Amino acid sequence: MNTNKRPSPSLSLLLAASAALVGHKAHAEETSTAPSIGYRFNVYDEDAFSGAPVIGSDKRYHVDTQQLDFSGNVGERNTLNVDATHEVMSGSSPWYSIPGPNNKPIQVLSGATIRDHRSAISASLMHDAGGNSTTTGSVSYSAERDYHATAIGLEHTIPLNTALTLGFGGSLSHDVIEPTDAEIFDRIRHAQKNTYSAFGSLSWVLNRASVLESGIQLNYQSGYLSDPYKLATVGEAQLPDTRPDRRTEAAWLVRYRLAINDNAALHADSRVAVNSWGQKSVTLDASLYQTLPGDWQIIPGVRYYTQHSARFYAPFFDANDAGSFYSSDYRLGGFGSVAGHLDLRKQFGRWEFTAGMERYHATTRYALGGANAANPGAVSYTRIFAGLDYHFD
Amino acid sequence: MRFEFSTMGCPCALHVEDVGDDVARRALAATLAEVDRLDRKYSHYRDDSLLATLQRSSESIDVDDETANLFDFAAELNRQSDGLFDITAGKLTRLWDGRKPAQKEIDAALRVTGWHRIEWNRPTLHVTTRNMHLDFGGLVKEYAADRCAELCREVGVQSGVVDLGGDLALIGPHANGEAWIVGIKAPRAEGKAAASIALPRGGLATSGDYERALIIDGKRYSHIVDPRSGWPIEGFASVSVVADSCLVAGSASTLAMLLGIERGGAWLRELGLPHLCIDGEGRISGDIKI
Predict the structure, then answer these.
(1) Residue B250 forms part of a structural domain
(2) What range defines the domain where residue B72 resides?
């Protein structure tokens, strides 16, 4: 039997209901994963600036990512996933903005083209305790010339009855920042930040065709949360991006899965988040998983995102009005975005080929209720990827 | 080594290999004791079974964990089949055992059939209708096969198969790691296999009208009865399913039989479990390669 596929809602229900009777062994076998190895190549390319005036190269970020992953069993009830990633980043990024004619912002981009590498490795081990109860531990490490991040996580799922599953967990990450050219640009030499996350979720199997999951996630960050490579124009001066050293975020997630028929399933997700910096965001995501004859699968999808800016965001600041914190980082500004993607999968025996494309466009015009300030750095990008997996069993 | 025995009204066998006589006989003893225990506890043909006690009682009764798990599982199957899989339909099943009943008998049996006529709040069961017959058919034999396989593993058998009337639970693959090649019973051709498949793990179960079917004036009546109409179902001649337990395989095959050719076939495809269906004309469908 093909254990690579996620069990259908009906089968999940049968397995959950039978787990108490046939014991752990049979269930562990059902949820075990056949060993597989996969390779992905991903190209992320931001659009050049157009429309808003810019100073510096208008060529924005480009990232080529290669990813190798392995999944297999360790003993009867443990599934190990290991994922290695290497990225090459290049291009210019928004540095700061200055007031132009009619007080419209002019975006200044980093003068030199950045070219950097990032390597990351992550591993997770899922233990199936039987009866649909699983515990997953994870570790990850990511290294760039100027940035090192280490994270650990633990999560647990436990069925409350045949239709309801409780999930909860937490994670910690510790990041170390040592900016390049710190002396030349008077950047901070060494900084750290920590992120603590906790989540809880309930998953309901509504009927044999649909599953609803709802969860709450709390994130707390402390330490150096500013971006050492960004400046903000305050009056006549360009000062280092300065943000509070703490941020608390609460997010509510809802996921819905509907098996429309034998060959089609709808995945609909939403996320609503607020944080102590005054940002509010909503994400709506829907994808259709359509199986076609000949072991093809096509997955079209759309995503909408809207964000209200942080309290201390502006494209530039009046020297008299600026508070203790100021940032012109476009990621903290108000904007909305629309993305569409199309993925294709094809199975050839033990091989599975995947390819896809995503087009993302962000602008203040798409922000729900309108953005309260200009956001000249809002990004649009195209992402394409291709991958190949081999399943050993 | 192969041991043959009979239980729950069907021929059974225990195949074990790569063990000494002592371990093999302990495995056989454990298997015989377990099927006997479950038959005594859940047979709907015995007046002294737990089921008989439950259905006779006008009071609420707290049941043990194993029975509660079976009721939970039966409740889930009832929900997934929109009421077609119904352990309260024992009276109807008995009615069709060896004869074609009169419609008024069917009507009377329908009046004591229906999940709404029991109150199940784990671990408490209350049968609210007198003369109801609870029937764990489609569950207990398959559950017994899984239990026996587990007990055989506990006494040290690593390679073998438990066969309870064609419902199979794997103890473990052959000693060299290869899968057991097992036969799927052919409907309406006693002793013949419709297909042979490799069973690397888990279980294989077959539901069909090849056993205990009633033939009157040339028409076959299945022993599987639709609890809504009170009449035997018409559809597949047999459905075989492979799953990681015989219990899940058996419940999936029984539900597919009850749902009929169109809905049953679609439901099996949705489950994603390997299956083989044979209709009354001998046409074969499903994704088990034969």
Answers:
(1) yes
(2) 50-127
Structure tokens, A242: 């300065």
Q: What is the ipTM of this complex?
A: 0.75
* Residues in A touching B75 (Cβ below 8 Å): 17, 162
Are A168 and A200 contacting, i.e. CB atoms less than 8 angstroms apart? yes
E strand or H helix at A67? strand A62-73
Q: Do the Cβ atoms of A59 and A90 come closer than 8 Å?
A: no
**Residue B250 φ/ψ, nearest 5 degrees:** -70, -40
B272 near A CB under 8 A: yes
Phi, psi angle pair for B19, to nearest 5°:
-135, 160
Distance CA A34, CA A228 (A): 44
Out of A8, A29, A262, closest to residue B244 by CB: A29
Q: How many domains does chain A have?
A: 1
Residue A5, chain B, CB below 8 Å: the answer is yes
Q: Which of B69, B248, B251 sits opposite A20 (nearest CB)?
A: B69
Domain assignment present for A1: no
User: Quick check: is B202 in a domain?
Assistant: yes
Per-residue pLDDT of chain A (393 residues; tens, 9 = 90+): 433 344 566 777 777 777 777 753 333 333 445 689 999 999 999 998 876 777 877 788 899 999 999 998 887 778 899 999 999 998 888 888 888 888 888 888 876 556 789 999 999 999 877 656 789 999 999 999 999 999 999 999 887 765 688 999 999 999 999 988 778 878 888 999 999 999 999 988 776 578 899 999 999 999 999 999 899 999 889 999 999 999 999 999 999 988 787 678 899 999 999 999 999 999 999 999 888 888 888 999 999 999 999 999 999 999 887 789 999 999 999 999 999 999 999 988 789 999 999 999 999 999 998 878 888 888 899 999 999 999 886
Judged by CB atoms closer than 8 Å, whether chains meet at B146 and A2 is answered as no
* Contact assignment for A14 to B274 by CB distance below 8 Å: no
B35 occurs within a structural domain? no
From chain A, the residues in CB contact with B72 under 8 A are 17, 20, 162
Q: How many CB atoms lie within 10 A of CB B67?
A: 20
Confirm or reject contact between B248 and chain A (CB < 8 A). Answer: yes
- Total tally of structural domains belonging to chain B: 2
Partners of residue B272 in chain A, C-beta under 8 Å: 1-2, 5, 7-8, 11
